[in-house]
Specification:
Distance between the termini: 42 Å
Helix content: 10-25%
Low-confidence stretches: none
Strand content: 35-45%
Structural class: alpha+beta
Mean pLDDT: 95
Shape: globular
Number of helices: 10
Number of strands: 23
Largest sheet: 7 strands, antiparallel
C-alpha cells in the first residue's frame, strides 16, 4: 500500500510499515501513463521534442517519451536503491485502447537495472473508480521503524541487535568488532551503528558479514562500508557485492557516495576462521541450501551460538509446528549435524533467539 509518503504492507490482518519500498512505489504510481503527465506538471518538467523530463530531488529522475499519437510510449527513470545505488527503470507502453472514454495501454513491459521485471497484458480498465487507502494509525505512529534497535547481551562480548523485522549480531574481539549482517537500508544501518557505538565506543568495526546477497539483508552494507569496514561474503556473492559497493549514487547520495570510498569485499568458500586468542568466530557455508547457494552462517564454538539468516526463522512462542517442514531448515539441521557443531542457541536474523531444540521441533526431529 502507498498513501503520500507512507508505505506499508498488509499480510493477513498484520500491517507493517515498509518505508524501504516508498520511493519504488511512488515511482510506479507516478510513471503510469496518466500519472507521469500529472507528475510532470507538478514538477516543472522541460519538454524537448517528444521527451518530457523532470526530477523529484532525492527520489528519482524521469524522462517520458510521447509517440506520434500523443500517447506515453516509454519511460526512462533513475531511482536510488539501497544496494545498487542509482538504478535505471525502463517502462514501455503499447497497444492503447479506449476504455469508457479513457485511453490506456494493454501491453506494459518493465525492466529494472536492465533485467526484465514486469510484463502485463491488460484486459480491462475501469476509469474513475474511487479509491480510499487511509493510512493505518500504527503506520502514522511509526514514522521511523528502522530506527528502533534493541540490544541484548547473549554471552560475554556478544550482542543480539533486534527491534525490527531484521536482526544483526555484534561480536567483540580483542581490538575490533565483527558485525554480522547490515540489513534493509541506510536508516537501519545508521541506527545499528549508533547502538554499536553506544555499547563499545572504543573499538572499531573491522568486518561486516553478509550472509547472502538478497536485498533485504544487504541494504545497509553501503552505509557500513562508508566507515571503511570490510565486507565478508561467500565467493558466490563477492563479484555482485563488489559491483554494488562501487556503484554511483547520484540521485540520492548515500553515506558511501559521500565518503568517496568504494568498499572492500573478501570472499570465503567453505569456511573462514576469525580468531585473536580471546575469541573464535567460524564463518561456514551452509552447503546445499535451497534458499541461496552462497548462504553463510557464523558459529561461536566456545559460546555454542549459531547466527543464521533465512534458513530457519523461529515461530512465535507456543505456535504449533508447521504442517510441513521447511526444506531450508531441514538442510540447516543437516549441516549442523554434518559439521558436528555444538549449538545451544540459535540467533536468527529474523525472529527471536531460541534453543536448538526449537529448530528440531520445527522440522519434526527429536533432539
Amino acid at each position: 500500500m502507498l498513501n503520500g509518503d507512507f508505505a506499508w504492507t498488509v499480510t493477513g490482518e498484520v500491517v507493517n510499515p515498509t518505508p524501504v519500498a516508498l520511493i519504488d512505489r511512488q515511482l510506479q504510481l507516478w510513471t503510469t501513463p496518466h500519472g507521469v503527465v500529472k507528475a510532470a506538471m507538478v514538477n516543472k518538467a522541460t519538454v524537448q521534442g517528444r521527451a518530457i523530463s523532470f526530477a523529484v530531488p532525492g527520489k528519482y529522475k524521469v524522462k517520458a517519451t510521447v509517440d506520434a499519437q500523443s500517447m506515453i510510449e516509454r519511460i526512462d527513470a533513475v531511482a536510488p536503491h539501497a544496494v545498487l545505488g542509482d538504478i535505471p527503470v525502463e517502462i514501455r507502453y503499447s497497444d492503447y485502447k479506449d476504455f469508457g472514454g479513457v485511453k490506456f495501454p494493454t501491453k506494459i513491459k518493465q525492466t529494472i537495472g536492465a533485467y526484465p521485471a514486469l510484463e502485463l497484458t491488460v484486459s480491462d480498465v475501469q476509469p474513475n473508480v474511487a479509491v480510499d487507502l487511509p493510512v493505518p494509525d500504527p503506520i502514522r505512529q511509526t514514522p521511523a521503524p528502522y530506527a528502533r534497535v534493541t540490544s541484548q547481551m547473549v554471552a560475554e562480548g556478544v550482542w543480539f541487535l533486534s527491534g525490527g523485522s531484521h536482526n544483526s549480531a555484534l561480536i567483540e574481539m580483542k581490538d575490533h568488532l565483527i558485525l554480522v549482517e547490515s540489513p534493509q537500508n541506510e536508516d537501519r544501518a545508521a541506527a545499528v551503528l549508533a547502538e554499536v557505538k553506544n555499547l563499545l565506543a572504543n573499538k572499531p568495526i573491522k568486518y561486516v558479514v553478509a550472509t547472502h546477497h538478497h536485498f533485504d539483508h544487504t541494504g545497509g552494507l553501503r552505509a557500513v562500508a562508508a566507515d571503511g569496514v570490510t565486507v565478508i561474503a561467500h565467493d558466490a556473492n563477492k563479484a555482485f557485492l563488489e559491483k554494488a559497493l562501487a556503484a554511483p549514487a547520484t540521485v540520492s547520495p548515500d553515506r558511501l557516495a559521500k565518503s568517496g570510498k568504494k568498499g572492500t569485499v573478501e570472499g570465503i568458500r567453505d569456511k573462514r576462521v576469525l580468531a585473536d586468542g580471546i575469541r573464535t568466530v567460524e564463518l561456514i557455508h551452509i552447503a546445499g541450501n535451497t534458499h541461496h547457494s552462497g548462504l553463510i552462517m557464523a558459529y561461536l564454538p566456545k559460546e555454542k551460538l549459531l547466527i543464521e539468516a533465512d534458513a530457519y526463522t523461529p515461530l512465535p512462542p507456543n505456535a504449533p509446528p508447521p504442517p510441513a517442514a521447511n526444506p531450508s531448515s531441514v538442510n540447516l539441521a543437516d549441516n549442523i549435524k554434518r559439521l558436528n557443531l555444538a549449538v545451544d542457541q540459535v540467533l536468527p536474523l529474523h525472529g527471536r533467539i531460541v534453543p536448538l531444540t526449537e529448530l528440531h521441533k520445527a522440522i519434526g526431529h527429536a533432539h
